[in-house]
Design brief:
about 85% helix
Amino acid sequence: MAGGVVSFFQGTIDQLVILAAFLPVLAGQSGNTGCQALAVTIRGITLREIRKGSVKKLLLKESLLGLFNGALVGLVAGVGMYFLARSQDNPLALPLALIVLAAMTGSCVVSGLFGAVVPIALRRLGADPATASSIFLTTATDVASMGLLLSLASWFLL
């Protein structure tokens, strides 16, 4: 699926090759956010701390943590993009930096949310969330991070 997202935006990457350098950065950092939410949720399921009434609170908490984490990491990544683009005399340095910041923030929110949703959903479907969650989480974070970066660049820069 992530490959399909990248292929869909091939024209964007062809015009703004610099974006390719940040695809693994976004996927990796948002993946870390999702893994943390996944670990906390699986621990909560195992210790029976997560009940029907507490799921909404958990989802909100993990989404907010993703927002804060994404904003902080996105700021660092955005500064990195700015300096890389400036070093290449790219006139779009500031817009590229802001797009990286927004994409990182958004993808970390999605990752935090999916890190909590996936194990809960798998548990309700009768699957073991400890063995089956990571593949769904990885796919969601890769699609979200790459899709957000490339779509924002397409909409605002091309």
